[in-house]
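Duplicate of #3305? Posting structure anyway:
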């Protein structure tokens, strides 16, 4: 099976018997756009299995691994997020499916002119689906000082020790104690 970037030549599978499988290892450094705000750091690795089914090829991906560069929502620094997707699958049809628009983003087709399957859109959708809901560099990220904006992971700022930063309530306590 020939491979170029994320495209695999499936010519030999198109006329193969039902259930015929081909396993491949994908390790690719070619970049592709996931989303404007998501920077993908190559390589991307995955185990790929192509299986001939009725008028289609079933594609099963396992152990998808890649790194993304994200921005921490607490301290605003860039950090590398290691994404691991255990398993994902799609069916790539040979012909247009009845009742489904050709440009339906959830329906995939084998490129019957070039006899290839391009996995980019499949991978892009899976990466977005597995995107972390909370983007923080570390669970223990201390974030930025609310007064001076210093990154508190890099050490204490000048405001450290002030009532304002450490114990906002202690200021209130002092006020109460006056009475
Ligand atoms: Zn952070
Ligand atoms: Zn500060």
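Output from current build:
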């Amino acid at each position: 099976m020939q491979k170029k970037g994320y495209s695999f030549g499936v010519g030999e599978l198109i006329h193969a018997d039902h259930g015929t499988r081909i396993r491949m290892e994908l390790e690719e450094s070619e970049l592709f756009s996931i989303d404007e705000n998501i920077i993908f750091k190559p390589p991307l690795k995955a185990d790929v299995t192509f299986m001939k089914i009725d008028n289609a090829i079933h594609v099963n991906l396992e152990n998808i691994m890649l790194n993304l560069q994200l921005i921490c929502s607490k301290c605003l620094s860039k950090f590398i997020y290691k994404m691991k997707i255990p398993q994902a699958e799609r069916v790539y049809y040979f012909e247009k499916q009845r009742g489904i628009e050709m440009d339906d983003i959830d329906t995939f087709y084998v490129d019957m002119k070039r006899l290839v399957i391009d996995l980019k859109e499949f991978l892009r959708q899976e990466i977005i689906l597995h995107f972390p809901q909370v983007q923080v560099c570390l669970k223990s990220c201390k974030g930025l000082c609310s007064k001076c904006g210093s990154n508190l992971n890099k050490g204490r700022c000048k405001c450290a020790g002030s009532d304002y930063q450490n114990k906002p309530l202690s200021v209130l306590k002092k006020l109460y104690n006056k009475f």
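Confirmed duplicate; merging threads. The mean pLDDT is 88. The pocket of zinc ion (ligand 2) is lined by residues 145, 147-148, 150, 157, 159 (CB under 6 Å).
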